Amino acid sequence: MNIFHGTIHKWGLQNCSINENYICLDIGCGGGNAVKAIAEKAIKGKIYGLDHSLEMVNLSRKLNSSLISKGLVEINQGSVSALPYSDSQFDLVTAFETIQFWTNLEKDLKEVKRILKSTGTLIIVNRYPPEDSKWSEFLQLKNAIEYKEKLNSAGFEHVSIDNKSKNGWILVIAKTKNG
I want to staple 32 with a disulfide (CB 3.0 to 4.6 A). Which of 63, 80, 110, 175 is the partner? Predict the structure, then answer.
């Protein structure tokens, strides 16, 4: 997972600025590679990883053990549907190839917005096959218009989408009202 997703983490993260003091969350942190990459930029902040799988939580904790011991990283088991974080806690939330697994997309996006600061940013990177491919029938969001509509409905006002730069992938940057 860390090897396969490494290029998409890099692509997503190079399209946003991460302040050294940012408080960040990676939803669906998997093996922890994105958490580690974010921590390299937010060196005075705090990075949280969240995954529903205890196996992935343990793998992410192992990869980030030195950062955890320094208090820079914290990895938790949980669900995007009930995020165990305070309102307006995060500057940046990332979701690398996880949104298709969210059980209640509208509610879950509102939950993400709840934990973002008024200047916060959500980055989504996901597979983006052609709409006529068999693989696309498994995706909750099948095109850029659907991404934008769902994010706007959840309260994100500034949504930019790149579905051209990396064939088969979509990058969505959604900002809160003042973001």
Answer: 63
Is residue 159 within 8 Å of residue 173, measured between CB atoms? Answer: yes
Domain assignment of residue 133, given as a range: 2-175
**pLDDT reported for residue 57:** 97
Distance in angstroms (rounded) separating the CA atoms of residues 44 and 141: 35
Q: What is the pTM of this model?
A: 0.92
What pLDDT, on the 0 to 100 scale, is given for residue 162?
Answer: 95
Amino acid 145 reads I
Number of domains in the chain: 1
**Tokens describing residue 148:** 């934008």
For 13-48, what is each residue's pLDDT tens digit?
998 899 999 999 999 999 999 999 999 999 999 999
d(CA 65, CA 77): 16
Assign residue 44 the CATH number of its domain: 3.40.50.150
